[in-house]
Protein backbone atom coordinates (compact mmCIF):
# COMPACT_ATOMS: atom_id res chain seq x y z
CA UNK A 1 0.00 0.00 0.00
CA UNK A 2 1.36 3.39 -1.04
CA UNK A 3 -0.55 5.29 1.66
CA UNK A 4 -1.14 5.11 5.40
CA UNK A 5 -4.71 6.44 5.20
CA UNK A 6 -7.44 6.34 2.55
CA UNK A 7 -9.98 9.16 2.98
CA UNK A 8 -13.27 8.61 1.15
CA UNK A 9 -15.75 11.23 0.19
CA UNK A 10 -19.21 9.81 0.90
CA UNK A 11 -21.89 10.96 -1.55
CA UNK A 12 -21.26 9.49 -4.98
CA UNK A 13 -18.16 7.61 -3.82
CA UNK A 14 -19.48 5.22 -1.17
CA UNK A 15 -23.24 5.71 -1.47
CA UNK A 16 -25.00 6.38 -4.77
CA UNK A 17 -26.78 9.44 -3.40
CA UNK A 18 -25.86 12.21 -5.84
CA UNK A 19 -28.60 11.45 -8.40
CA UNK A 20 -31.20 11.36 -5.62
CA UNK A 21 -30.12 14.46 -3.72
CA UNK A 22 -29.47 16.63 -6.78
CA UNK A 23 -32.80 15.69 -8.33
CA UNK A 24 -34.54 16.73 -5.11
CA UNK A 25 -32.43 19.86 -4.67
CA UNK A 26 -33.16 21.04 -8.21
CA UNK A 27 -36.84 20.40 -7.67
CA UNK A 28 -37.00 22.21 -4.34
CA UNK A 29 -35.08 25.26 -5.56
CA UNK A 30 -37.36 25.44 -8.60
CA UNK A 31 -40.39 25.15 -6.34
CA UNK A 32 -39.11 28.15 -4.35
CA UNK A 33 -38.75 30.30 -7.45
CA UNK A 34 -35.12 29.58 -8.29
CA UNK A 35 -35.39 27.51 -11.51
CA UNK A 36 -32.67 24.86 -11.42
CA UNK A 37 -32.19 21.81 -13.62
CA UNK A 38 -30.73 18.53 -12.43
CA UNK A 39 -27.62 19.19 -14.52
CA UNK A 40 -27.22 22.66 -13.01
CA UNK A 41 -27.52 21.24 -9.51
CA UNK A 42 -24.74 18.75 -10.23
CA UNK A 43 -22.58 21.49 -11.72
CA UNK A 44 -23.04 24.02 -8.93
CA UNK A 45 -23.64 22.04 -5.76
CA UNK A 46 -22.30 18.49 -6.07
CA UNK A 47 -19.86 17.80 -3.26
CA UNK A 48 -20.58 21.00 -1.36
CA UNK A 49 -21.93 21.71 2.11
CA UNK A 50 -25.40 23.20 2.44
CA UNK A 51 -24.10 26.69 3.20
CA UNK A 52 -22.85 26.86 -0.39
CA UNK A 53 -26.41 26.46 -1.71
CA UNK A 54 -27.53 29.38 0.46
CA UNK A 55 -24.52 31.49 -0.56
CA UNK A 56 -24.95 30.93 -4.30
CA UNK A 57 -28.69 31.57 -4.31
CA UNK A 58 -28.22 34.78 -2.30
CA UNK A 59 -25.39 35.95 -4.56
CA UNK A 60 -27.36 35.27 -7.75
CA UNK A 61 -30.79 36.50 -6.71
CA UNK A 62 -30.36 38.75 -3.68
CA UNK A 63 -32.91 36.57 -1.87
CA UNK A 64 -32.34 34.26 1.07
CA UNK A 65 -33.66 30.72 1.17
CA UNK A 66 -36.26 29.99 3.87
CA UNK A 67 -34.96 29.38 7.40
CA UNK A 68 -36.31 25.83 7.32
CA UNK A 69 -34.76 25.07 3.90
CA UNK A 70 -32.17 22.61 5.24
CA UNK A 71 -34.67 20.74 7.42
CA UNK A 72 -37.24 20.40 4.64
CA UNK A 73 -34.63 19.36 2.09
CA UNK A 74 -33.03 16.78 4.37
CA UNK A 75 -36.45 15.37 5.25
CA UNK A 76 -37.12 14.79 1.56
CA UNK A 77 -33.65 13.35 0.98
CA UNK A 78 -33.79 10.94 3.93
CA UNK A 79 -37.22 9.68 2.84
CA UNK A 80 -35.88 9.08 -0.66
CA UNK A 81 -32.79 7.36 0.73
CA UNK A 82 -35.02 4.87 2.54
CA UNK A 83 -36.72 4.03 -0.76
CA UNK A 84 -33.86 4.19 -3.24
CA UNK A 85 -30.33 4.43 -1.83
CA UNK A 86 -27.74 1.78 -2.71
CA UNK A 87 -23.98 1.56 -2.16
CA UNK A 88 -21.84 2.61 -5.11
CA UNK A 89 -21.08 -0.59 -7.08
CA UNK A 90 -17.70 -1.90 -5.97
CA UNK A 91 -17.54 0.12 -2.74
CA UNK A 92 -18.23 -2.82 -0.44
CA UNK A 93 -15.44 -4.86 -2.04
CA UNK A 94 -12.93 -2.02 -1.65
CA UNK A 95 -13.80 -1.53 2.02
CA UNK A 96 -13.61 -5.26 2.70
CA UNK A 97 -10.15 -5.38 1.09
CA UNK A 98 -8.85 -2.41 3.07
CA UNK A 99 -10.21 -3.85 6.32
CA UNK A 100 -8.73 -7.29 5.59
CA UNK A 101 -5.34 -5.76 4.80
CA UNK A 102 -5.36 -3.60 7.92
CA UNK A 103 -5.21 -0.34 5.94
CA UNK A 104 -6.58 2.69 7.77
CA UNK A 105 -9.53 4.42 6.11
CA UNK A 106 -12.22 6.94 6.99
CA UNK A 107 -14.94 9.08 5.42
CA UNK A 108 -14.79 12.89 5.20
CA UNK A 109 -17.98 14.35 3.80
CA UNK A 110 -19.55 17.74 3.22
CA UNK A 111 -22.79 16.15 4.41
CA UNK A 112 -23.98 16.25 8.00
CA UNK A 113 -23.28 13.41 10.44
CA UNK A 114 -26.97 12.53 10.29
CA UNK A 115 -26.93 12.31 6.50
CA UNK A 116 -23.82 10.12 6.53
CA UNK A 117 -25.27 7.75 9.13
CA UNK A 118 -28.68 7.51 7.47
CA UNK A 119 -27.01 6.56 4.19
CA UNK A 120 -24.67 4.06 5.79
CA UNK A 121 -27.47 2.36 7.73
CA UNK A 122 -29.61 2.02 4.61
CA UNK A 123 -26.78 0.60 2.50
CA UNK A 124 -25.17 -1.58 5.18
CA UNK A 125 -21.91 0.38 5.09
CA UNK A 126 -22.30 1.22 8.78
CA UNK A 127 -20.47 -2.03 9.57
CA UNK A 128 -17.30 -0.44 8.16
CA UNK A 129 -17.60 2.95 9.86
CA UNK A 130 -17.67 3.32 13.61
CA UNK A 131 -17.81 6.88 14.97
CA UNK A 132 -14.04 7.38 14.91
CA UNK A 133 -13.95 6.92 11.15
CA UNK A 134 -16.64 9.50 10.27
CA UNK A 135 -15.86 13.19 9.71
CA UNK A 136 -18.24 15.88 8.49
CA UNK A 137 -17.89 19.51 7.48
CA UNK A 138 -19.95 20.09 10.65
CA UNK A 139 -16.80 19.26 12.59
CA UNK A 140 -14.78 22.12 11.11
CA UNK A 141 -17.39 24.67 10.09
CA UNK A 142 -15.85 25.16 6.67
CA UNK A 143 -16.74 22.85 3.80
CA UNK A 144 -14.88 21.93 0.64
CA UNK A 145 -13.05 23.45 -1.28
CA UNK A 146 -11.34 24.54 1.96
CA UNK A 147 -8.82 21.88 3.08
CA UNK A 148 -9.95 22.00 6.71
CA UNK A 149 -12.06 18.83 6.70
CA UNK A 150 -9.39 16.61 5.16
CA UNK A 151 -6.70 18.02 7.45
CA UNK A 152 -8.95 17.43 10.45
CA UNK A 153 -9.63 13.83 9.41
CA UNK A 154 -5.92 13.13 8.95
CA UNK A 155 -5.10 14.69 12.32
CA UNK A 156 -7.76 12.67 14.12
CA UNK A 157 -6.59 9.49 12.40
CA UNK A 158 -2.97 10.27 13.33
CA UNK A 159 -1.58 10.36 9.79
CA UNK A 160 0.46 13.10 8.12
CA UNK A 161 -1.27 14.72 5.10
CA UNK A 162 1.48 13.59 2.76
CA UNK A 163 0.72 9.95 3.62
CA UNK A 164 -2.98 10.27 2.79
CA UNK A 165 -4.92 9.70 -0.42
CA UNK A 166 -8.40 11.13 -0.95
CA UNK A 167 -11.02 9.46 -3.15
CA UNK A 168 -13.29 12.17 -4.58
CA UNK A 169 -15.87 12.65 -7.31
CA UNK A 170 -16.40 16.43 -7.21
CA UNK A 171 -14.24 19.36 -8.35
CA UNK A 172 -14.68 21.00 -4.93
CA UNK A 173 -13.42 17.87 -3.19
CA UNK A 174 -10.42 17.53 -5.48
CA UNK A 175 -9.55 21.17 -4.86
CA UNK A 176 -9.81 20.67 -1.10
CA UNK A 177 -7.61 17.58 -1.12
CA UNK A 178 -4.93 19.25 -3.23
CA UNK A 179 -4.98 22.25 -0.88
CA UNK A 180 -4.50 19.83 2.03
CA UNK A 181 -1.33 18.47 0.43
CA UNK A 182 -2.82 15.04 -0.22
CA UNK A 183 -2.85 12.83 -3.29
CA UNK A 184 -6.27 12.56 -4.95
CA UNK A 185 -7.90 9.82 -6.99
CA UNK A 186 -10.78 11.21 -9.03
CA UNK A 187 -13.82 8.96 -9.48
CA UNK A 188 -15.39 9.72 -12.85
CA UNK A 189 -18.56 7.62 -12.70
CA UNK A 190 -20.75 10.75 -12.57
CA UNK A 191 -18.30 13.59 -13.19
CA UNK A 192 -16.53 14.25 -16.50
CA UNK A 193 -12.81 13.61 -16.18
CA UNK A 194 -12.11 17.15 -17.39
CA UNK A 195 -13.75 18.54 -14.23
CA UNK A 196 -11.47 16.44 -12.01
CA UNK A 197 -8.27 17.45 -13.78
CA UNK A 198 -6.56 18.32 -10.49
CA UNK A 199 -6.59 14.68 -9.39
CA UNK A 200 -3.41 12.69 -9.74
CA UNK A 201 -5.24 9.64 -11.04
CA UNK A 202 -8.67 9.12 -12.56
CA UNK A 203 -10.79 5.97 -12.56
CA UNK A 204 -14.36 5.13 -13.46
CA UNK A 205 -15.07 1.83 -11.69
CA UNK A 206 -14.86 1.65 -7.88
CA UNK A 207 -13.95 -2.03 -8.14
CA UNK A 208 -10.61 -0.90 -9.64
CA UNK A 209 -9.60 1.19 -6.64
CA UNK A 210 -8.00 -1.47 -4.43
CA UNK A 211 -5.56 -2.42 -7.20
CA UNK A 212 -4.84 1.22 -8.07
CA UNK A 213 -3.89 1.97 -4.47
CA UNK A 214 -1.15 -0.67 -4.56
CA UNK A 215 0.25 0.25 -7.99
What this model shows, in words?
There is one protein chain. The protein is of the alpha/beta class and 215 residues long. It is built from 9 helices and 6 strands; from the N terminus they run E-H-H-H-H-H-E-H-E-H-E-H-E-E-H. A 6-stranded parallel beta sheet has the order 3-2-1-4-5-6, with helices on both faces. Helix 6 links the parallel strand 2 and strand 3. The mean pLDDT is 95.
Q: What gap, in angstroms, lies between the N and C termini?
A: 8 Å
Calculate Rg over CA atoms: 16 Å
What proportion of the residues form beta strands (DSSP E)?
A: 5-15%
Helicity range of the residues?
A: 40-55%
Unreliably modeled segments: none
- Helical stretch tally: 9
- Arithmetic mean of pLDDT: 95
Order of helices and strands: EHHHHHEHEHEHEEH
| Order of the strands making up the biggest sheet | 3-2-1-4-5-6
Q: Largest beta sheet, briefly?
A: 6 strands, parallel
Shape: globular
Structural class: alpha/beta
What is the number of strand segments? 6
Quick recap:
The chain has 9 helices and 6 strands. The chain is of the alpha/beta class and 215 residues long.
Amino acid sequence: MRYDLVIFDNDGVLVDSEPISNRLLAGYLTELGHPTSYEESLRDYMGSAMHRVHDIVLERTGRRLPEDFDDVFHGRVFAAFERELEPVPGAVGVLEKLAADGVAYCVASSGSHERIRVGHRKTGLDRFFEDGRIFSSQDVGKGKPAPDLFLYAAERMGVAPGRCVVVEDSPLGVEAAVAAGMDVYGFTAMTPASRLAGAGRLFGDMAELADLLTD
